[in-house]
Amino acid sequence: MISVTVQKASQTLAKLIQNTVRNCEETLIVSDSGAVVLIDQAEWNNIQETLNLLRDKKSLHALVEGHKFRKQGQKPDSISIDEAFHDL
Question: What architecture is the 2-40 domain classified under in CATH?
Answer without folding.
Answer: 3-Layer(aba) Sandwich (3.40)
